[in-house]
Amino acid sequence: MNQLSGGQAAVESLKVEAVEHVFGLIGSATMEMFDALYDAESIRFIGVHDERTGTHMADGYARASGRAGVILAGQNGPGATNLVTGLAQAAAAFSPVVSIAGSLSSAHVYRDAFQEVDQQALFRPVTKKTWTVTQTQRLPEMFREAFRVAMTPRRGPVQLNIPRDILSETAEFPDLQPPYAYRSQSVPAGAADAIAEAAALLRTAARPVIVAGGGIKNTGGHVAVLQLAEALNAPVVTAPGHGDAIPFGHPLNAGQMGPRGNPVASRLAQEADVILALGTRLGFNSTFYSYDNINERAAIIHVELEPTAIGRYFPVAVGIWADAPTAAQQLRKALADLEARAEVAAWTRAYQEERAAYLEQRDALAATDAHPIQPTGLFKALRDVLPRDAAVTLDAGTLCLQATDALNYWEPPCLFSPLDFGLVGFSFACGLGVKLARPDRSVVSLMGDGGFGMTLSELSTAVDHGINTVTIVMNNQCWGAEKAYQRDFFGERYIGADVSSPPFDKAAELYGAAGYRVERLPEVGEAVAAALKCGKPAVVDVAVDPAALYSFRRDSFKHRGG
Fold this sequence. Notes:
Oligomer: single chain
Shape: globular
C-alpha cells in the first residue's frame, strides 16, 4: 500500500495509462495535481493560454495518435466552463479526450460559493460521460473508467470533476493495475448471414460505390478498404472531412462526396446502384439528409460500429453492426472468386476518365495570375508546395470549406477539421496537438483571419514548447461565410462582417515565431517552403481577395428566393 495525496494518485493514474502529454492551464483548485506533475518525468505538461484551445490541442493529439488526449483545467468555475466548446467539438468528432477539472470543495456545494457552478450538469450534454469524484480512494477507479469510456467505440470525450478536498486528502492506495488488466481490445465482426447478403448484392452491382468515413480513417483501415475496392473494381468516395480516409494517389479514390464535395464523387453517389457505406453515418455533411445527394434507388449496405447509426437517415438493404475494416476484410474473402464484369469495368473506367479530367481542370482553372489572390490559386500553390507527409488542419468558414477537397491528402490520417461542429478557431490549436502526436510529420494549419485572431495567444505555447507548425492565415478581412450570406440573401446589408487585425507575420515575430507576408500568389510557394524549414513555429499571412466568398448553405436561405 502507498500513502498518496489525491493529486499524487491522479498523476499515478495518468502514468498507468502511459500518458505522455497533458495540456492544461494551472489553477488553485488542482494545485496538488500540478505539484505531482512536477515530479512526473514521463509526462510532459503543455501549459496553454486558454482551456478551450487546450482542449483543441488534446483533441488533435487524440485524433492523430489514436490515444486519449488529456486536458487539465486547473480552476473550477470559469476554468471549467471554458472547456465546454472544446468538448462539444471533440464530441462531434468522436475524439477521445479525457478532460479533468478542479471542482468546488465538497463542503461548499450548494452554498453559492466562490466560482460555484454545477459542473456535473454543465458537461453532461457535451461528453460521453461525466463524473464528480466523491472519495479520494476512488480516484484510480474513476480515471480507469474515464479512459475506458473515452476509448470505447464510438470514442468520445469524457469529463472528470475532482473537488479540492479530494485532491488534498491522503489515503492508502494499492499498486495500480495496468490498462490491459481491465480493458477489452476486441472489435465486433459482421454476422455471417449479413456479410453473405451484402456480398450477393455487390456481386450483381453494375455501378458499385464504396463510401469511406471516420470508421475507416480513425482505425487506419484504408488497406482493407482498398483491397476490397480493387476486388470489386469499385470507386471509393470519402465522407466530407475524411478525404484522407484513403491515400489521394490511389486510382480508385474519387475524393469527398456530398454538397461540399467534388462533382465527380458526388455524381458517383447520386448514380450508384449499390452503395457500401463503411464507417459513416451518411449524415449531414455527406448528404444534407436528402436524396439529392444519394441515389434513392440504390441498395445501401451500411456498416457501422454504432448500431443506432445504421439506417438512421436512409433505409438500408443490409445493415451490418461491425468494425468497418473488419467487415471490409470479411467482404473481400466472401468475394474472393469474383470475376471481372464488363458493366462494372465501364462504370469505373468512365469515372477514372472523369476524375482525371476534373483534376486537370482544377489546375487549369486555378486563378494563378489574379491579384488580389484567389482561393483557387492559393490552393494550387499549396498543392505544389506541401510535402506528401503533411498533416493539414482546417477551420470552419468559407475559405477552409473551399479548401476541404482542394488539397491532396497522401498519408492517412492527415486531415483534421471541425467536422459537424463547424467551429471557427479550431485549426491552429488542433495543429499543435497533431504535431506533438506526430513530430515526424509536417503540420500545416489553415485558418481565416477571424479564427486565427481568436487563438493568437497560443503562439506563446508553440514557441515555449518548440511545437513547430506552419499556420497559413487566409486573410480576407471578414467573417467570410456570413458576409457571403449577407451579400447573396440580405441585399448587401453588412453588419458585423468585417474584421480588422494586426499584421499576423509581425505578431508572430513578436511572440518569437517566424512570420511571412504574402501579397501576390508567386510568393506563396517560397514563403510556405521557408516556413516549413525555419525550425520555429511559423505564420504565413496571405492576403486573399475579400470578395472571393461562397455561400455554402444556400439551402438554408431558400425562403429568401436566392
